[in-house]
Design goal:
Blueprint: H1 14-37, E1 43-44, H2 47-54, H3 56-65, E2 82-86, E3 92-96, H4 104-111, H5 125-129, H6 133-144, H7 149-158, E4 163-165, H8 169-174, H9 176-180, E5 184-189, E6 193-198, E7 203-204, H10 222-228, H11 234-242
Antiparallel strand pairs: 1-7, 2-3, 3-4, 5-6
Helix pairs in contact: 1-2
Length: about 250
């Protein structure tokens, strides 16, 4: 038998790393199910599902309390080419570009500031992400306030830039893909009624995961565990309850 391993590379994004880890986990679970039942099945894993699962604690808190997580200050970013920006409509988007030499001329055209390409402050990659990085972020911040997000994303794509929208949790709750893939599900809590909860990120075709809508109450399964696992008889369990040893 072979041990399935997933080697994480520092050059691979966290979404890709998480996708590989989830897939490895899903394969191991599916092999175990096949060993025990003889049933094979199809796995469905996605980067979107992984990122939703990665934010379970914060997303579930937002669902229950409406509180958005605190963001890291943008000024602490290492590179203006790997940063977030706010458009005229208040919506945010991100740039996700590595070595800036490849993207700098096109970005200057997007910004409408072609003269920046040869500017001594920004004429090398080291300057753009180093000593002049903060200045460049400030320039880009002002320019990106001139158009709405969808306009910038279209323009960035046209000029070969790597960008994408940044959705907050309110956007996540409205995303059709999230619900269609069961990354968020409707569940019924025994005390609080219908609730939206984060689903399981790996889809198993034959043995789907079940999300328990609520944690067990104190002593809820004591009798079941004592009878089926520990082998206690009914009269013994009743005696323990009468003695208030168990609930």
């Amino acid at each position: 038998r072979r041990l399935i391993r997933h080697k994480v590379s520092p050059r691979v994004g966290i979404a890709d790393q998480l996708g590989g880890i989830m897939l490895s986990y899903g394969v191991i679970v599916a092999l175990l199910v096949r060993q025990q039942t003889g049933v094979g099945q199809k796995l469905d894993v996605s980067l979107l599902g992984g990122l939703v699962a990665l934010q379970t604690m914060w997303l579930q808190a937002f669902i229950l309390c409406g509180q958005q997580p605190v963001k890291k200050p943008r000024t602490e970013t290492r590179s203006p080419f790997w940063n977030t920006y706010q458009a005229k409509d208040g919506k945010w988007f991100c740039l996700s570009m590595g070595h800036s030499d490849r993207y700098w001329p096109g970005l200057c055209r997007v910004l409408g500031r072609e003269e920046l390409e040869k500017d001594p402050l920004f004429d090398t990659h080291e300057k753009r992400i180093g000593t002049s990085g903060t200045i460049l972020v400030s320039i880009m911040d002002k320019i990106f306030k001139d158009k709405n997000r969808y306009e910038w994303l279209e323009l960035l794509d046209k000029h070969g830039q790597i960008s994408g929208p940044i959705n907050d949790f309110q956007d996540v709750l409205k995303d059709e893909q999230i619900w269609k893939n069961h990354y968020l599900i409707e569940s019924k809590h025994p005390d609080f009624g219908p609730l939206k909860v984060v689903g399981f990120p790996i889809q198993f075709s034959e043995t789907p995961a079940i999300i328990n809508p609520g944690a067990p109450k104190h002593g809820e399964h004591s009798e079941e565990i004592m009878r089926e696992i520990l082998g206690y008889k009914t009269e013994e369990i009743l005696a323990l309850k009468e003695g208030k040893i168990i609930k």
